Amino acid sequence: MSGIRALARRLELSIGTVSRALNGRPDVNPATRDRVLNAAREMGYRPNQSGRALRHGRTSTVGLVMETGNPSTLGGDSFFMWLVDALQEELAVAGLDLVILPCHSADDPIAFLERQVARRAVDALIISATRRQDARIAYLAGSDTPFVALGRSETPGDYAWIDLDFETVARESVERLAALGHRRIAVAVPQGDANLAHLYLRGYRAAVAALGLPDDPALVLRTSASENGGVEVAQAILAMDPRPTAVMLGHEMMAIGLYSTLERAGLRPGADLSVVGFRQNPQLGFLSPSLACFRLDLGELGRALGRSVVDVLASPAGLKPGRLIWPMGFEPGPSMEPPPL
Amino acid sequence: MSGIRALARRLELSIGTVSRALNGRPDVNPATRDRVLNAAREMGYRPNQSGRALRHGRTSTVGLVMETGNPSTLGGDSFFMWLVDALQEELAVAGLDLVILPCHSADDPIAFLERQVARRAVDALIISATRRQDARIAYLAGSDTPFVALGRSETPGDYAWIDLDFETVARESVERLAALGHRRIAVAVPQGDANLAHLYLRGYRAAVAALGLPDDPALVLRTSASENGGVEVAQAILAMDPRPTAVMLGHEMMAIGLYSTLERAGLRPGADLSVVGFRQNPQLGFLSPSLACFRLDLGELGRALGRSVVDVLASPAGLKPGRLIWPMGFEPGPSMEPPPL
User: CB within 8 A of A185, min separation 6: which ones?
Assistant: First the structure.
């Protein structure tokens, strides 16, 4: 529990109230404000963002656009829930509230954003699940609504973003598998035009070329970013001849469906097919053998995203927006073994 | 895809725009409105809620308060994501937008609600994860903000709610296990003061008493509503002497941790320990053997919740609010067997 939440708990106040008191907002009872400031002094709490001149609109609210109705959110992917906790806390430090704006994947994302902008219910927006060409970025870059993208895009524009290092993760996965002796390495990539799929595949292809491994189009499997995608990947691999000796997964939840399907076919990850997952995730802890994958601290990422939003609101227009490629460390596991002889 | 979404897709408009056109709202381009009304006529679409006199405030927005930072949302429980899709669609039919208001479990829930009410950013609220005694219900019942609770409570008040039939699910689980010959039946109940835990345990106790089964307090296991809760339940059962021959799980995600822990101990669900889960869920489809559990159509539930909100906004004050206990049908599976001889 970091500073402001500990302070709120000790005072039995909401984070929002504590935040508004620390930021000198007028809608706080003076006695409460004094209690908060005294406790903050006692606990040595220094709100690093307070006192900044934010370009507050009328709402002091930030909207996180979350795509719903897709295989990932309908599966067990709790990515956003972890992110939201830390993001909300970081925004609260700057006196900002967070609301989640669900946008169904079947709806027109531009019409959705136009509506949010027209309603003026938020001072800034966070968009996610960026596409390789992303019309939302073009639209928002031309609007007067500040925004941050969780994810890059090839759409040009001066905008702030944070993205995971998909390219390095894929390159490192190939290199580590090749070091164990694997040559035919399959790669599972989310279907559709998500930019992350493009980046992951680019990292895979660069490493395959650099190491002189077979560059067989049949090894590239397009599937849904979910548990069911992993089922499809396992079925495709079982039907291949020659079969790849390893597979790397471009979405974390694929491992669950892959393990289950291999098990039903009497095969064991590691001994029969090496597997490298994407993001380490508490739910993958129930898989046996443990999955080799990559670590990501979603609390840190959520806080960085919150700081980025605050920076965008605080910056004079025209300042260079912040951009950050987030590294992920490799976590070994017995799902990787040398190929069968 | 139901009516309004099909209509929006055909017209390449957002659901929100279609909804506003159907509801005669002024913020729609007249040409767009005519296109929508013509297409609706052609497709035979009848918006059942349109034209109702809703007690619209200024926002036409409904806020779903979602508790974050708890074991359930941080695990792989996608309950809310399924619910949100259908809820959003049903609200759109009545010209209402949905926003999700994340409230961290460490924050004061009353302070959070007071703030939402003071900001007047939503016309109505939906609260969930109701407690046996729930101060939020007492607060909202005394406010002028219409609300619907997803979940009952013993806190008195004239309010609308929808709740799952936890009591019948638990009673039926005991009865079906007893019919197979089980007598020592353990029950895993979410810890804390969630009302659903109280209802589930009440159903268990009523059936145990009616059937004359052993009423041993050691058989009641309090744990977290998550995968990790299932790990704890399995560990507790493995340490018991005499061991129960069956366990029923008061939260759906517990099955994942339970299966994993039994497997590591060399035990198989069904043959070695019968298991009845709570809600059927796509993620449980990866468990082997298949889990006996209860079916719930979250799309139907989400739409019913949306209609309940619309009713609350449409009703003249003083009308009896809607209340609904949602039945769940049993789904058999090989995780239930007669006890070992």
Answer: A174, A177, A178, A204, A208, A213, A219, A244, A245, A246, A247, A248
Question: Inter-chain contact B108–A283, Cβ cutoff 8 Å?
Answer: no
Judge whether B182 lies within some domain: yes
Does any domain span residue A340?
no
List pLDDT tens digits, range B254-267: 999 999 999 999 99
> Which residues from chain A sit within 8 angstroms of residue B86, using beta carbons?
none
B160 and B170, same domain (yes or no): no
Report strand pairing: A292-295 vs A329-331: antiparallel
pLDDT the model gives residue A244: 97
**Cα(B105)–Cα(B125) distance, integer angstroms:** 18
- Compare CB distances from B73 to A81, A119, A264 and report the shortest one's residue: A81
What mean pLDDT is reported for chain B?
89
ipTM of the complex: 0.83
Residues forming a β-bridge with B98? B62
- The answer as to whether A142 is a domain residue is yes
For chain A (341 residues), the mean pLDDT of every run of 10, in chain order, is 71 76 73 81 61 60 91 79 91 92 89 89 94 96 93 93 97 98 97 95 98 96 95 98 97 95 96 97 91 96 95 77 93 97 80
Report if residue A50 sits inside a domain.
no
- Indicate yes or no: CB of A16 within 8 angstroms of CB of B118: no
Q: Which residues of B touch A78 (CB under 8 A)?
A: 73-77
- Which of A15, A76, A111 is opposite residue B14, by nearest beta carbon? A111
| DSSP class of B29 | -
Selected residue of B19, B82, B100 to mutate for chain A interface (largest A Cβ count, 10 A)? B100
Mutate which of A4, A59, A107 to disrupt the B interface (most B C-beta within 10 Å)?
A: A107
Cβ contact, residue pair A73, B78, below 8 Å: yes
| Structural domain of B101 | 61-164+297-326
Tell me what pLDDT residue B171 has.
98
The stretch B127-151 carries a mean pLDDT of 94
Q: Phi-psi category of A223—alpha, beta or left, where left has phi over 0 and alpha has psi -120 to 50?
A: beta
Residues of A in contact with B263 (CB under 8 A): 288
B156: closest CA of chain A, how far (Å): 25
Residues B69 and B84 in one domain: yes
- pLDDT at B48 (0 to 100): 46
